[in-house]
Amino acid sequence: MSGTDDIKALEAELTAAVAAAGDEAALETLRVEALGKKGRISLMMRSLGQMSPEERQVMGPALNGLKDRVADAIAAKKTALEAAALDARLATERADISLPPRPEPKGALHPVTQVMEELAVIFSDMGFAVAEGPDVEDDFHNFTALNFPEGHPARDTHDTFFFKPRADGSRMLLRTHTSPVQIRTLMNQKPPIRIIAPGRVYRCDWDQTHTPMFHQVEGLVIDKEAHMGHLKGLLMDFVAAFFETDEVEARFRPHHFPFTEPSAEMDVKYERVGDAVKVGSGDKWMEILGCGMVHPNVIAACGLDPDEYQGFAWGMGVDRLAMLKYGAPDLRDYFANDVRWLSHYGFSPLLQANLATGLS
Predict the structure, then answer these.
(1) DSSP-based three-state secondary structure for 312
(2) pLDDT tens, 107-160?
(3) What is the pLDDT of residues 209-248, one digit of tens each?
(4) Nearest 5°: phi and psi at 271?
(5) E strands, 26-145, where?
(6) If you compute the radius of gyration of the chain from its CA atoms, what whole number of angstroms results?
(7) CA–CA separation, 86 and 82 (whole Å)
(8) Domain 111-345 falls under CATH 2.40.30.10
C-alpha cells in the first residue's frame, strides 16, 4: 500500500472515531492519540526527514492536509457536543415562570437601611455625591485634622475604641464619626465639593439611646462663596423632605464643635402622635443635628487656602432619625435581631425611596 493510501485509510479511521465520540472526554482522548506529540499523525510527520525529496513533495502536503482536516473535524465535533450538553442542561434546569409568587414575601429592609436610602435620595436631588471611607482610622484623620487639640476629652478611651500601640507608639482606632471621610475628600479632591458621608461609627456607650456602634451621616460643602444662610436653607429643605411636611419651623442655637466656627445646633418644632414624632406642628423644640461653617484650621490641615475657600458641614445620627420618624422607642432593638421587631418596622425592598411618590 502506498503512503497516500495509508493517509486515506488513517483519515477514514479517525473521521469515523471522531463521529462516534460520545462526550468531550472521549473526544479529547482521540485528539491526543491523533495530534499529540506522540500521536499517530505527528509520528508520520516526523518520518518526512527520512524520505527522498521527491517523496517529501508528495507526502508533506498530504500529511499537513490530513492534520488540518482531522483538527477541523475534532473542533466541529466539540462544538456539537457542547451545544448538546447545554441543551440537556437547559431541559433539566427549566424554571416554570407561570408559578404564582409567594403569597407573603419574607424579608424586609432594616429601618437604618431605609433611612440611609432616603438620605441619599434627598441629597442627591440637591446635587450631592455619596462618599465613603474606612472604619479603622488614624489619629490625624479622626482628630488632628479636625482641629481636636491634644488632651481633648473625645480622645480619651472612655469615648474611643483604640487598638494596641504600633511600633512607633501610634494607635489606630475605630472612627468616632464620619468626619474623617470629609478630610479624605478635601485632601484628594479639588473644590467645589458637595458630598454626604453616611456610615458606621463607634463609641464606648450603651443605653436606651446610645449603642457602641451606630450610624451617622455628615454633609460637606466647600467652595468660595458658601455661607451660613446657604446652610440654614439647605437643612430646612432637608427636614421638610425627610419628614414629608410642608411646614418646618427651626431655630439655630450657638454651640461649639472643634471643626466648625461658628457652630450651631438645629432645633425643630414638633409634637408626638403616639410613638411617632410629627415635625412641622406642635409647640416643643427638639434638637435634630449639629452644623456650622468649616473651621479655617480644618481647611488648612487639608492643604487648601482658608483665605480662598470656605464652606459648611453638618452631622446627624441615622439611627435617631429612624427612631423619630418611625416611632421605634429603644435604640438597642435595632441590633437585637428580633424577627418580630424586624417584621413590624421593616420596609419592602421592592418599594424604592424617591421624591416623586414618597420616601417611605
Answers:
(1) strand
(2) 788 999 999 999 999 999 999 999 999 999 999 999 999 998 888 777 776 688
(3) 678 889 999 999 999 999 999 999 999 999 999 988 888 8
(4) -145, 155
(5) 129-130, 136-137
(6) 35
(7) 6
(8) no
